[in-house]
Structure formats: C-alpha cells, structure tokens
C-alpha cells in the first residue's frame, strides 16, 4: 500500500490521477493533496478520501476558512506550504503534477526525504536536472516519469537497453503544425489552445505549439536516461499513437503504441513500472501502422536548438529557458504579446545569458526570478 501525496490535484494530470485512484483504493491511500486557484474540489476530495491528513492551497485567506471547517485536517498555503505538506502527511510517494518552476523545490525536498517521486512536472528536470540526478546518484529517493514520451522510452529500455543508437521522441507538432512560420504572426491564444491530439493544461498546450515542450522533453530524456543530446531526436508523428521509440544500431525500432490517454503513463509511474505493458518492434518505423510522419525541421521550430544548449552546457541555462518561456507564455495567454514573441523573448535571454556551472538550488531560484523580471522589462520596452 502506497501512501500517496498528490501535488497539483486540480490540474489536468492531477484530475486524471484522481480518476485512477478511484479504482485503486487497495493499492493507494491518498494522504494529502494540493490545489491552486481552483478550490472547489477540496470538500469533495476530503469527503471521498477519509485518509487525507493535509491540504495545501495558494491563498492564505481561503486556507484559513477551510481550516475552520475541517479542524482535523491540517491546511497549508504557498510554496513553503507544499514542503510542509510533504513533511506533515508522511507519504511514501509524491506525485508532482504541478506546472512550472514551482514544481522544482518540492521534487528536491521529496527526494531528500528518500521518497518515490512520480514526476509529471518536466520543468523540475529542465531547471534542476543536475541537482535531481545528484540526489538520485547518492541514493536519495527514486524517480518515475509520467510524461508519455518518457514513459514509452522507459518501457522500451526495460525490454532492451543494449545497442541503442537513437532515442526518437515523437511530436504531434501542436496546434499550428499546418502553418508556415509566416502564418504564425497573427495567431491567438484561442487558436493555440486547440491541440490536435491531446487535451492538457493551458501552459503545456502553448508549449506544444511553440515546440518548447519538445525541447523540454529532449532535456527531460537526457536527465532521465543519461543519453547525450546527439542521441536524442525528434520525429513528427501526426496521430500521437506512437509515444516514442528507440532505434538500435542494427537499424530496427522498438516503440510503445496506444491511443493518446495520459492515464496510461500516470498509472505506469504510480505502479513503479511494475505492471504489464507492451512494446512493438519493426524494421522501419513506417511499418508500425498507417500513420503520418514528417522529418523534424529545425528551421520551422528554431527554439528546439536550445535543448542541446541546456544539455551540453547545463548550469543555469535551463532556468533561463524555463523562466523566460513561462513568463512569456502567461503574457501571451493574457493577450499582451503575439505568439512569435514567446520565441523571441526566450532567444534574447538565452543568447545573452552568462552561464553559471553547477548552481545550487538557491542560485537557480535567483536566476529564475531575475529572468522573469527581464522578460517583463523586454515587454515594457516592446523589445520582442
Ligand atoms: P494544469 O495547469 O492543468 O495543472 C497544474 C496544477 O498545478 C494545478 O493543480 C494548479 O493549481 C497547480 N499550480 C499551478 N501553479 C501553482 C503554484 N504557483 N502553486 C501551487 N500550485 C500551482 O497543468 P497540467 O497540464 O496538468 O500539467 C502539469 C505538469 O505535467 C506540467 O509540468 C506539464 O508539462 C506536465 N505534463 C502534462 C501533460 C498533460 O496531458 N496535461 C502531459 C505530459 C506532461
Ligand atoms: Mg509529453
């Protein structure tokens, strides 16, 4: 029986996780959860799961009113509250379904406590992959990826991790895959939120349209599986049925193939990869099914060049990549900057950044904060 703490219970991954737990009460005891601005589910979850000991939310005021209503449950708030919630609820596993930089510190905190971490929050690895891997290498905790591409790679590697030539991460191409770069000038947030194959939170849906998401996934694959940047490739695959694949040195392929449904990788991570799964092999990936593939063109998605920069140079580059993207995406969602400005802002800040190798957690937090301020400065000056 796993005592599970779910961070980000109100989000897309969090909600799908709850739908899995509903039918898995013999394997998981939900000991606590966090929500962000959407608080309407709190009472329902507390009633449904009598095992809940603690809840974290963003606002202090709301927290106080819930604390009065539920005196037997301990309520926390804010970034520190997420850490206190981990300490207070005493879980054996933390699922991190938070979005953005806010997911980094709780990941580190949980690993330091030697907990199992099921990780959807890829930003934690983009920014702090070195710190996370240092902890894992020293025997602190364990990590189980939820991202569908990485879940597929994990499965394929479990079957055969010898003589791998390339990891091939598939990409749907996002909402604007049929548009040329010129046609991207006037697209709106509403257009960008219409993902062709997956239904996800707003931020990651925009990240798919810009291909920042794929860049993050290349970095994520590097830290999870310890492959160098030149061994990790992207292939456009329209249907999102092949979740990623390995190419071996003899030219054959191994893939995980299923309809897009995040509950599969979530379940696989929650069960530590110890449930039945299937992979398929083929002498050519085009034989996996009646699917559509396109070669990845870096000129169409130039932002992906920063993935290898982050992998090869490490240090504080991941923090700049993530923070510049996060702030720019939220400004785009508010309608304050055009779509292509996201890419321009990231490029400006990445290109001028002076890297600091082997940063501490506090240094990463500082670079994150400074980068966000720089994004707002660029927007104020109209430099995008
Ligand atoms: P979402 O926006 O739907 O949910 C995010 C959760 O984080 C919410 O519960 C929200 O309240 C919480 N949150 C946000 N900011 C917070 C803050 N400052 N403090 C505390 N809580 C905060 O996002 P999502 O789509 O579920 O994505 C979650 C993570 O999983 C992301 O890192 C994303 O890249 C990754 N991911 C998502 C999918 C998917 O299908 N949605 C697939 C693969 C990976
Ligand atoms: Mg993914």
Low-confidence stretches: none
Strand content: 15-25%
Placed side by side, the strands forming the largest sheet appear as 4-3-2-1-5-6-7
Number of strands: 13
The structure class reads: alpha/beta
Helical residue percent?
40-55%
- Give the termini separation: 51 Å
C-alpha Rg (nearest Å): 20 Å
Mean pLDDT: 96
How would you spell out the order of helices and strands? EHEHEHEHEHEHEHEHHHEEEHEEHHHH
Number of helices: 15
Shape: globular
For the biggest sheet, the summary is: 7 strands, parallel
Give the bound compounds: nicotinamide-adenine-dinucleotide, magnesium ion
Describe the structure.
With 384 residues, the protein is an alpha/beta fold. The radius of gyration is 20 Å and the shape is globular. Helix 4 packs parallel to helix 5 (104-112), helix 5 runs parallel beside helix 6 and helix 7 runs parallel beside helix 10 (212-225). Helix 6 links the parallel strand 6 and strand 7 (142-145). The chain has helices at residues 12-21, 42-48, 60-69, 78-89, 104-112, 122-137, 148-159, 189-192, 202-210, 212-225, 263-270, 305-313, 317-333, 339-352, 361-381, and strands at residues 2-7, 28-34, 54-57, 74-77, 93-96, 116-119, 142-145, 164-171, 232-237, 242-248, 253-257, 280-282, 293-295. It is built from 15 helices and 13 strands. The mean pLDDT is 96. The structure holds nicotinamide-adenine-dinucleotide (NAD) and magnesium ion.
């Amino acid at each position: 029986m796993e005592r599970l703490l779910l961070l980000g219970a109100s989000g897309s991954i969090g909600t799908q996780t709850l739908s899995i737990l509903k039918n898995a009460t013999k394997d998981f005891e939900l000991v606590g959860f966090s929500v962000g601005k959407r608080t309407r589910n709190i009472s329902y979850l507390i009633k449904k799961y009598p095992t809940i000991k603690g809840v974290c939310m963003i606002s202090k005021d709301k927290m106080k009113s819930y604390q009065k209503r539920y005196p037997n449950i301990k309520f926390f708030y804010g970034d520190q509250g997420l850490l206190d919630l981990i300490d207070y609820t005493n879980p054996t596993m933390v699922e991190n379904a938070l979005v953005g930089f806010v997911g980094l510190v709780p990941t580190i905190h949980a690993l330091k406590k030697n907990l199992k971490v099921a990780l959807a929050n890829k930003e934690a690895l983009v920014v702090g992959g070195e710190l996370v891997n240092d902890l894992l290498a020293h025997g602190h905790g364990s990590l189980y990826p939820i991202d569908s591409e990485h879940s597929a790679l994990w499965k394929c590697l479990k079957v055969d991790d010898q003589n791998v030539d390339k990891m091939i991460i598939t990409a749907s191409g996002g909402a604007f895959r049929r548009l040329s770069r010129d046609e991207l000038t006037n697209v709106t947030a509403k257009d960008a939120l219409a993902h062709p194959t997956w239904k996800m939170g707003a931020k990651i849906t925009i990240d798919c349209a810009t291909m920042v998401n794929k860049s993050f996934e290349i970095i994520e694959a590097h830290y999870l599986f310890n492959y160098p940047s030149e061994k990790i490739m992207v292939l456009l695959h329209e249907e999102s049925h092949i979740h990623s694949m390995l190419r071996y040195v003899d030219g054959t392929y191994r893939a995980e193939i299923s309809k897009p449904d995040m509950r599969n990788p979530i379940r696989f991570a929650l069960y530590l990869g110890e449930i039945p799964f299937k992979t398929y092999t083929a002498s050519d990936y085009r034989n996996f099914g009646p699917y559509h593939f396109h070669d990845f063109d870096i000129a169409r998605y130039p932002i992906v060049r920063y993935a290898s920069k982050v992998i090869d140079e490490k240090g504080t580059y991941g923090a700049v990549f993530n923070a510049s993207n996060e702030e720019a995406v939220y400004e785009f969602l508010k309608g304050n900057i055009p779509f292509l400005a996201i890419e321009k802002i990231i490029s400006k800040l990445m290109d001028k950044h002076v890297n600091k190798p082997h940063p501490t957690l506090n240094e990463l937090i500082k670079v994150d904060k400074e980068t966000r301020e720089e994004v707002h400065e660029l927007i104020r000056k109209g430099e995008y």
